[in-house]
């Protein structure tokens, strides 16, 4: 149990003195001695604990707000922007390279398109990129890591040597080579990044499974005749969820940043599709006079990555039983 949960439990559930035991026979009932709560009550306690930890941790609160704003913009962006057609190649050359104003909050680009509209609409692209890369990496890395850590021996050797082959080359460099072979495009960029993203999950889950397979509850399950499949899905995988959630939350921001890097060098989304990295790349030709052109896409990248990193750090405080900062 983490120190944060222990502190919350002490505040939320102080010792209660049982009545009716006589003057000499009174004792304190701790929260652990209370009757077991129904599933709804346990869920409510987990929500209360999460809210308590987030409320007393300003960086985590900031990260949660930034991530929430990111998801809201991705969901309702097309309905709130003033010029949704500017994401499909519309041109307004009479308004090109206008500074921020009441009409164009973030200014306009070289085609006269509203930068606010394009930056907000690019949020949906970034969300799709981050989720796709992270989910593919989790889907590949988790079963391989569990198999390597639990079974060991030859299976572990083969899986970890293949993983080391991917890890010995910088991920972005390998992604560039894959995109160069497949051709530019946001889909090819996502495939390339997903291919180089899974080894980190193999390393993480393999180390966790290697520790868990020596735990007494796993030995007890094996002694009672549980199959390897039952042990994996009933005991090993559930205990790998916490580090998996923390890493995935941080990797969302890093995946968005990596995709923006590919777009910046021309290997990501193709014009006129709105994408933050590609917008910054185009804006270089108009610096420093048209400073707004690169400022706002870069600011959205910064806030998005910052939000996911702060949220992941807060989730680690909540889910990591060895955390001492809570």
Explain this structure to me?
- The protein is mainly alpha-helical and 326 residues long.
- The chain folds into two domains: 3-55, no CATH class; 59-319, Orthogonal Bundle (MetI-like fold), CATH 1.10.3720.
- The protein has twelve helices and two strands.
- It has helices at 3-12, 39-55, 58-80, 115-151, 153-167, 171-182, 186-212, 216-223, 228-236, 241-264, 276-283, 291-319; strands spanning 16-17, 28-29.
- The chain has a two-stranded antiparallel ribbon.
- Helix 4 packs antiparallel against helix 5 and helix 7 packs antiparallel against helix 10.
- It is globular.
Named at the architecture level, the CATH assignment of the largest domain is: Orthogonal Bundle
CATH superfamily of the largest domain: MetI-like
Instruction: List low-pLDDT spans.
Output: 14-37
Distance between the termini: 11 Å
The helix-and-strand class reads mainly alpha
Describe the main β-sheet briefly: 2 strands, antiparallel
> Oligomeric status of the shown chains?
single chain
Q: Taking Cα atoms only, what radius of gyration do you get, to the nearest Å?
A: 25 Å
Average pLDDT value?
81
CATH topology of the largest domain: MetI-like fold
What is the helix fraction of residues, given as a range? 55-70%
Give the number of DSSP strands.
Answer: 2
Estimate what percentage of residues fall within beta strands.
under 5%
Helix segment tally: 12
Secondary-structure element series = HEEHHHHHHHHHHH
Structurally, the number of domains stands at 2
């Amino acid at each position: 149990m983490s120190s944060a949960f222990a502190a919350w439990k002490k505040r939320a559930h102080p010792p209660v003195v049982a009545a009716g035991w006589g003057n000499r026979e009174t004792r304190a009932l701790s929260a652990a001695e209370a009757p077991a709560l129904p599933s709804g009550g346990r869920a409510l306690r987990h929500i209360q604990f999460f809210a308590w930890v987030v409320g007393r941790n300003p960086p985590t609160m900031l990260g949660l707000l930034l991530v929430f704003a990111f998801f809201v913009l991705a969901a309702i962006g097309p309905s709130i922007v003033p010029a949704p057609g500017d994401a499909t190649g519309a041109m307004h050359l009479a308004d090109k390279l206008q500074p921020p104003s009441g009409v164009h909050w973030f200014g306009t680009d070289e085609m006269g398109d509203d930068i606010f509209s394009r930056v907000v609409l690019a949020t949906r692209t970034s969300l799709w990129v981050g989720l796709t890369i992270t989910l593919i990496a989790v889907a590949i890395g988790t079963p391989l890591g569990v198999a390597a850590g639990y079974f060991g021996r030859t299976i572990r050797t083969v899986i970890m040597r293949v993983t080391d082959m991917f890890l010995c080359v910088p991920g972005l460099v390998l992604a560039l080579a894959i995109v160069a072979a497949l051709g530019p495009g946001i889909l090819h960029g996502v495939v390339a990044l997903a291919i180089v993203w899974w080894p980190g999950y193999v390393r993480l889950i393999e180390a966790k499974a290697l520790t868990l397979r020596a735990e007494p509850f796993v030995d007890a399950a094996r002694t009672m005749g549980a199959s390897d499949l039952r042990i994996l899905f009933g005991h090993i995988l559930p205990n790998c969820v916490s580090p998996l959630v923390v890493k995935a939350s941080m990797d969302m921001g890093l995946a968005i940043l990596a995709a923006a890097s590919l777009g910046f060098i021309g290997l990501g989304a193709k014009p006129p599709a709105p994408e933050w990295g590609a917008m910054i790349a185009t804006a270089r030709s108009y610096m420093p006079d048209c400073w707004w052109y690169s400022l706002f896409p870069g600011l959205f990248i910064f806030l998005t990555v910052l939000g996911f990193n702060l949220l992941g750090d807060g989730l680690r405080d909540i889910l990591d039983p060895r955390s001492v900062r809570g």
